[in-house]
Amino acid sequence: MSKKSPHAATPALKVVEDAGVDHHVYTFEAGKDHFGDHAAAALEVEPERVLKTLVIDLTAGKGSKRQLAVCVIPTTHHLSLKKAAAAHGVSKAAMADPHDASKSSGYIPGGISPLGQKNPLPTVIEETAVLFDTVFISGGRRGLDIELNAEDLAELCSASFADLLAE
Question: Which superkingdom does the taxonomy of this entry point to (predicted)?
Answer without folding.
Answer: Bacteria
